[in-house]
Amino acid sequence: MNVFLMVVLIVLISTAAGLVKNHQSKTVKIEKIKAQSVKDELELEKIKHENYLLETDKMRLELEQMKETDKVNLEKSKNQLIE
Question: Sign (positive/negative) of CA torsion 47, 52, 55, 60?
Answer without folding.
Answer: negative
